Amino acid sequence: xxxxxxxxxxxxxxxxxxxxxxxxxxxxxxxxxxxxxxxxxxxxxxxxxxxxxxxxxxxxxxxxxxxxxxxxxxxxxxxxxxxxxxxxxxxxxxxxxxxxxxxxxxxxxxxxxxxxxxxxxxxxxxxxxxxxxxxxxxxxxxxxxxxxxxxxxxxxxxxxxxxxxxxxxxxxxxxxxxxxxxxxxxxxxxxxxxxxxxxxxxxxxxxxxxxxxxxxxxxxxxxxxxxxxxxxxxxxxxxxxxxxxxxxxxxxxxxxxxxxxxxxxxxxxxxxxxxxxxxxxxxxxxxxxxxxxxxxxxxxxxxxxxxxxxxxxxxxxxxxx
Amino acid sequence: xxxxxxxxxxxxxxxxxxxxxxxxxxxxxxxxxxxxxxxxxxxxxxxxxxxxxxxxxxxxxxxxxxxxxxxxxxxxxxxxxxxxxxxxxxxxxxxxxxxxxxxxxxxxxxxxxxxxxxxxxxxxxxxxxxxxxxxxxxxxxxxxxxxxxxxxxxxxxxxxxxxxxxxxxxxxxxxxxxxxxxxxxxxxxxxxxxxxxxxxxxxxxxxxxxxxxxxxxxxxxxxxxxxxxxxxxxxxxxxxxxxxxxxxxxxxxxxxxxxxxxxxxxxxxxxxxxxxxxx
Lengths: 321, 279
Description:
The structure holds two protein chains of two kinds.
Chain A: E1 15-20, H1 24-33, E2 39-44, H2 47-56, E3 61-65, H3 73-81, E4 91-95, E5 113-116, H4 121-140, H5 150-162, E6 167-175, H6 177-184, H7 186-205, E7 213-218, E8 221-226, H8 231-245, H9 252-257, E9 259-263, E10 269-273, E11 276-284, H10 292-308, E12 313-316
Parallel strand pairs in A: 1-2, 1-3, 3-4, 4-5, 11-12
Antiparallel strand pairs in A: 6-8, 6-11, 7-8, 9-10
Chain B: H1 2-15, H2 24-35, H3 41-48, H4 52-62, H5 76-93, H6 99-125, H7 131-139, H8 143-151, H9 153-166, H10 170-177, H11 182-192, H12 197-205, H13 216-231, H14 247-253, H15 260-275
Helix pairs in contact in B: 2-3, 2-5, 3-5, 4-5, 6-7, 6-13, 6-15, 7-12, 7-13, 8-9, 8-11, 9-10, 11-12, 12-13, 13-14
């Protein structure tokens, strides 16, 4: 068995956790599961001492034991969860069986999970791992499309670069989205973003059995990753579907004249064509890229080129050998 | 008062419809395509577009608020791109086949697909760009009849009885028995399912295109399509009456009778072709 990865958190590093518990055996168990460079535990026997640190330098995870005597564990959880800046911090509460004689009001005590004595190492390990991953996912998902956001995108690209895997990275954005949003309002703008997200996801997924990824940077910016050999076909299909579907989102009159009248960035009234999708594709082949930043810099350059064309189109990074 | 009560209770029953029959041959074809990783959305869309019930389900799904753009998507091809094959698989699993109804329905099934083709041809003759939107409207124009058959079997039997004994059209029989026709049922369903306004109006006003508010043209196309497919006696809309024809529909589309001649030629060819598609 690969002991290095036995803790189950390959993609996380440098996480800080607070344990508030008088139970020395629990402390030892937790510290034995994850190497310090993955999760470093700071341990407190009493609640009072922990609270000060909790508010001044919040950790990435809080585990609090109901056996703590000076402050109720539920109070500590409430303190963290009622402050919006700490709300995303995952909190796990440790209980004895007698604590569960009556049902808890989880609505009032907004912890993310609980651990029950006697502690069983594999369960403790995986409950904690799950809580950490769930918190990251919830934090990073785009609230509109529910697609993974920047943190996950960067992590995915960097880990592909680190493993020297060949891939194609595509940046998509919409032309004339702003004028559409200005004319029809943001809720109709959101409809278009939802539609775009679904076209990209379903097109990429239709390449059965390929390793792919779709993320939503924000606004009208999307990212997808595919193996290099299928990316051009994917771009073609996305452009085709987008151009076919987008007229449905305009009022009949605008749809008919294939343009809208709206104000531009300088405040002038102007005609804008129907929205189009531009895609810029960067390749990483034979470990050409070393860092995520290189990929996005190349892509931004290509995007300008793609944008020169008012119609939907894609540009591939031809500098690739 | 009693009339009002029947309307309310029937409406409730109609809208609670969860399961509509689909022809087994269509379902088989779609299932096989969806399970084959090499098949394209175009292929799947083509088969689904031959079945009013599957088409209605797909459009209902893609236009539901869950996906965030209710009432926007008119064509099956676009619906498939936006739903993805996973969801289509789910729709297929949840679609059942009613063997008993199958017999009674197959005439209506042929009538509907005939009307879909006819509507597409009329739309083309009238110079519309996207004939597929009109095809969908034509396909779904009698969906209310299917729903009545499934949800209200006793009333449906009474309607059929009335067609035979009084020698009236199915539409008139519906109004004698229910107090309203399938066009009203279509209107309920289309609104309940967030179908796009042009499809909704065609489903609601295909008997009276001049009453449509915003999409008279779509309703007129389906009205003429419905008439043409009856002339060809392809399929069965529930009776063997000659369909009536509203000249107003031609006016809305700025068509002359002679413009329909090439449409009828094209249609007769297409109907020959798809007659092989039936079992």
